[in-house]
Design brief:
It contains 3 helices and 7 strands. By secondary structure, the chain is of the alpha+beta class.
Length: 142
Amino acid sequence: MSHVARIELEINDLETLKAACKALGFEFLCDQQTYRWYGTWVGDYPLPQGFTRDDLGKCTHAIRVPGATYEIGVVKRGSKYLLLWDFYQSGGLQAHIGTNGGKLKQAYSVQRIRREAVLKGYHLQEQKTPQGIRIIMTDIRR
């Protein structure tokens, strides 16, 4: 069954998304125009807002997750990118990226903070916690 949804994260920097994928051990597939999913919309789950059934499975880039059958579609909309995925259990994505793509969202956020901090002259230190990642920034300009 198809359960295609949008991961609630707007991507405005593909390099940061690529870095997040690398940190998680995922493969960013530049210019891959389709992503693997159930393959047919069967009407058992609402379509992502702004998408039609003909849009499903089509993308600008894709993300391959080792151990999962399905892939994540990176879809360009205006100046931003949106992430689509089929979260049905048999596709295996949710086990690797978390509920609602939480692990991927966190990795993107960490990479985004890292890039911005370096540009602004900060040193970053990351600590893994039971809740996720804690980031400590130190101003190295002082």
